[in-house]
Amino acid sequence: MWFFDRTRASHWFILGMIAVSLVSYFGFLSWGKVGDALEALAEKPSGAPVFHAKIDRADAIFMVFTVLFLTPLALVAAAGVVAFIGAALAGFLESMFHRPGMPDWFFTGCVYLALAVVGFYTRSIWFPQVRGFASLVARAMVAATR
Questions:
Q1: Across the chain, which distance is largest between two alpha carbons, in Å?
Q2: Mean pLDDT, residues 101-119
Q3: Residue of 50, 76, 58, 62 whose CA lies nearest to 135
Q4: What's the angle, vertex CA 119, arms to CA 110 and CA 131, rounded to 5?
């Protein structure tokens, strides 16, 4: 038995997910736009070299499961690398330019702003690989559902 506690945000989240699931199950909510976007992403040529041959449905299901299982771990690892680089650079800046009365968060904010600007201006380097990977996963999802 599950007792609903109005003061806990996790209970509201679970209640919302139950409501969305029921509305979707009874057909009041359509996932057609999501399916159309997934198929449009799957047709991008950036992920095409991997799927030239006919893909087996079992391979596609395994790939989708692997991506869904390992993506949170990869995101945590990437966030850890960014946090480590940010802390190292903030410590370096603080040791060079620290003045009395200056808050510690100032250097961390400057470093993360600089990392965001570098990421924005280098998007032509990393974005095609991200799009190709997303196209590959979308093709696997489309192949797994057929």
A1: 66
A2: 91
A3: 50
A4: 155
Spatial distance between the Cα atoms of 40 and 132, rounded to a whole number of angstroms: 13
What are the pLDDT digits (tens) for 8-62?
888 899 999 999 889 888 888 777 787 888 888 777 766 555 555 566 788 888 8
Give the residue carrying structure tokens 């799009």.
131
CA–CA separation, 35 vs 52, rounded Å?
Answer: 22
Q: Collect all residues with Cβ–Cβ distance below 8 Å to 108 and sequence separation of at least 6.
A: 86, 87, 90
Q: Which amino acid is at 29?
A: L
Output the CA torsion sign for 76, 82, 85, 88: negative
Give me the phi and psi of 36, to 5 degrees please: -65, -40
Distance of CA 41 to the CA centre of its chain: 16
The whole-model pTM stands at: 0.64
